[in-house]
Amino acid sequence: MEPNYPLHLPDFYIGDPGPAYRDLRHNSPVHWTSANGGFWGITRYADVKFIGSRPHLFSSANGVLMPDGKPRTADPRPMLITTDPPRHKAMRTLISKGFTPKHINAMEPEVREIVRGVLDSAEPGIEVEYAEGLVAKVPVRIIADLLGAPAEDWEQFRAWSDASVGSADPGVELSSQEAFGALTTYFRRLIALREQHRTNDLISLLMDAEVDGESLSHDELMAFLHLLLVAGNETTRNLIALGTIALINHPEQLRMLVDDPSLIPAAIEEMLRHISPVTHMTRWATEDVELRGKTIRKGQAVVLLYGAANRDEDVFGETAEQFDITRRPNPHLAFGTGEHACLGLSLARLEARVFFEELLARFDRIELTGEVLRMRSTMVPGVRTMHVRLGAADDRAGVR
Amino acid sequence: MRIVLDRARCTGIGICESFAPTVFEVDDNGELVVLSAEVPEGALDEVTAAVEGCPALALRLEP
């Protein structure tokens, strides 16, 4: 009998999907779920890579979120993430210039200053709300700054961004439509300002950009800005928050990091693999495709389950399910694969590295003091709130 | 070993540069420049990491 899992529900991803992923990889690696109009769930590493690198066969044009039961058609003016070749590359190159290792590495002092400012508000021994109160402030400030939003707007930005992805979460007061509208109005204002005066921010870069000799339309520009804000925000926040929980659950590995911060970059790769903060991306078959004895029909949705691929025993061996910050090599697919792979991956790595470097230099003990409240999302089921107490050993106090 | 770049696949994200900055560089136009057609002496590990780490599968090594 074929396994049956609610792959269309947020609760599946908020719980521990590990055992289900394992079952699916072994017993139904190309797995049909009939909910929401139906979609194929892909759980093996090799298959995720195969599909992700064949955009002509598996298109992004109908959207990358898993089917929600509403009809999907291609957007006539799609955003970067839902654009197929050849236009995708031309659009992506416009913005990738701003995200090369050289540019991102140059941001390290600024990232460190922001992280230090945020961590200055946390005192040893005092309970603090960690996800929203500390972690979330870092990526939102960086991305808002990259976009060119003034500092006084950063908090408002975070609220809108949270709301625009957390539509299924009753804990978020603002509806996603309201948040989207508010952001649109705000971006329109920033664009009007840049029409008077260009700066070196991403909005100015995009306003001057051309694809095939044509400027981006107002709608395309807007879609770009929405995408960058949401993509640069939730994902990094949840990598750091869920990564911290992984360290709390593995105190011996937390100790290793405190004692030897040079292990932090490898630890972040393992957090990426083990958590896979973005659970999936969806592709749409452009013709009938045979895969592992199943026929994926033209037009059907194919959901690439990165968290499942990232625990594939064929690639990560018998310890695939375990969290191990010393894992090497670690060729995880947490940033996706193929030409749509995460544009901001260097920035995400930088933010997470600097955050943990600064955190662990100040605090060598982290304990949860209450329940972890999760975002009810199928794509980025992150941490809404988590209360922790941070402890600093006496002999480490005053090191910085 | 020769480094082969499939420019049609490359998205200029620069992952290769972060692994092997002496061999790969994304220029100010967002285009990847391969600084050395052959794998330099002693750089095989980092170039291999760059090739395997390319999410766009745009790089390969040929004997």
Automatic annotation (TrEMBL), chain A:
Pfam families: p450. PROSITE patterns: CYTOCHROME_P450 (PS00086). GO terms for molecular function: cholest-4-en-3-one 26-monooxygenase activity; heme binding; iron ion binding; steroid hydroxylase activity. Transmembrane segments: none annotated. Keywords: Heme, Iron, Metal-binding, Monooxygenase, Oxidoreductase. It comes from the Bacteria. This is Cytochrome P450. It comes from Lentzea xinjiangensis.
TrEMBL record, chain B:
Signal peptide: none annotated. Residues 1-29 form the 4Fe-4S ferredoxin-type domain. GO terms for molecular function: 3 iron, 4 sulfur cluster binding; metal ion binding. Keywords: 3Fe-4S, Electron transport, Iron, Iron-sulfur, Metal-binding, Transport. Its cofactor is [3Fe-4S] cluster. InterPro entries: 4Fe4S_Fe-S-bd (IPR017896), Fe-S_cluster_ET (IPR051269). The keyword Iron-sulfur applies. This is Ferredoxin. It comes from Lentzea xinjiangensis.
